[in-house]
Write a structure and sequence with these properties.
Blueprint (H helix, E strand, L loop, with lengths): L9 E10 L4 E4 L2 H7 L11 E4 L7 H7 L7 E6 L13 E5 H6 L9 E4 L2 E9 L2 E5 L9 E10 L3 H13 L7 E5 L2 E6 L5 H15 L3 E6 L1 H5 L1
Parallel strand pairs: 11-12
Antiparallel strand pairs: 1-2, 1-3, 1-9, 4-9, 5-8, 6-7, 7-8, 10-11
Length: 224
Amino acid sequence: MTEKIQHHDFIEIDYTGKLTDGTVFDTTVEKVAKGSGIGNEKSKFAPLVVCVGERQVLPGLDDSLEGKEVNQKFEVNIAAENAFGKRDVKKMKIVPMSTFKEHNVQPQPGLQIDVDGEKGLVSRVSGGRVIVNFNHPLAGKEVVYEVEIKRKVTDKAEMLRTFLNSTLRIPVDKIKAEVKEDVAEIKMPIQLPEQFTNGAGKKLAELVKLKEVKFSVDKKEEKK
């Protein structure tokens, strides 16, 4: 009997996200990406390793993984609130025209901007005011995901690398992890705050079932 995927299992998946009209907006499959015209020459498409229940993918997609089986393919419809969220009128904000002039930017509908780290889309320009929509472009939309569970990850070093890659967006090949006698040594390409490493160490030890997780800096990568 095939083993069921459980909460906090690490699994490798391929997926394709679509709108209900069939429009592809995200995928891990290169062939699908090329056929749908998404991404560019530098884009990399590959299966994704996730820890089930840790919200490393959309909540509705994450919830659908538990109870499935390795090699299983399935499709799941996800309501807006469990995907990219409902449209929130509070995220429609007025930005003074002077803010754009300070940065030598001429606002026009459809222009994507970044205000204090928050991405938005110019919705309307009226006099000295610019209305910017900070909702996710897919907010309020039901989406459909086609998913294939390719394998269950059992190598603890791989679990550590992929979890940190998802959390910090640092390439997997820049993260070095070694596990001996239930103690992990992780070398990172950058110096991380002690507050982060303490919290992350405890979290990873719990998820990967280790006694201790230690962090250090990879001096060779840090120089690069």
